[in-house]
Amino acid sequence: MRSATVTALAFAGVLSIALSAQQPPAPPPAGGGGGGMHMGQDVAHKVSNGGIRGAGWKGRPDPGTGAVNDSSLDVKGSNIEVHTGPAMLYWNPANKGTGDYTVSATFTEPKYMSSNDHPHPYGVFLAGNDLDTENASALYCAAYGRGTYIVRGFGPAPFAVNGRGGSPNDAVHKAAGKGESVEQTIAMSVKGDKVECSINGTVVGSYPKSDLVAAGKLKSTDGIAGIRVAHNVDVDVKDFKVSK
Hints:
Layout: H1 2-22, E1 38-39, E2 42-43, E3 51-53, E4 58-61, E5 72-76, E6 79-83, E7 88-97, E8 101-109, E9 122-129, E10 137-143, E11 148-154, E12 158-160, E13 167-168, E14 182-191, E15 194-199, E16 202-208, H2 209-212, E17 223-229, E18 234-243
Parallel strand pairs: 3-5
Antiparallel strand pairs: 1-2, 4-7, 5-6, 6-18, 7-17, 8-14, 8-18, 9-10, 9-17, 10-11, 11-12, 11-13, 14-15, 15-16
């Protein structure tokens, strides 16, 4: 009896291992593309001298990924310097858009992948509502220095708009290599019944407003505009503005 029991347990163990090997790996966080604290073994670090130093500016990390003071934002005249641990939304409540409007900025990654061993994105967001609450909603477009871009939203749970790992486009600049500088000018616009993302002067994505303003997505395309930076990124921002 004892021999039979041991044999049965051994067989069960082998079967369990075999079945586990057939299971697909767990998907990355729904925010995608470096949007949260954990992505496989990729963990957001805490930056030194964290916090927000800029009159009127606020920030929120992706839920469950860390604290505001684990990343840093410094306003230096008309420029903004960002170093993230956790992925962040940064905004000044004075920057609001209604009706048709555009939010834009130029991002420079001085040393591509300076705080990680693979690309992470950065860009702008619009339609920010209830950002200080657990019901926050917003939509962002962000570029990677590898030549791809990603469009994602919070409603408040993350939702995808384009490809899960981002979409390639020739308009997105590619860094020459790790440690090299790469620059992207990124804009998001509300135009009539659609929302567009432009990178370096080229429209890379256009989406019906009716697909974005819906249950579990955006409350409205009106709202606060700001900056989106994924985790473990060092980036400089200039010419951030909201315009008609």
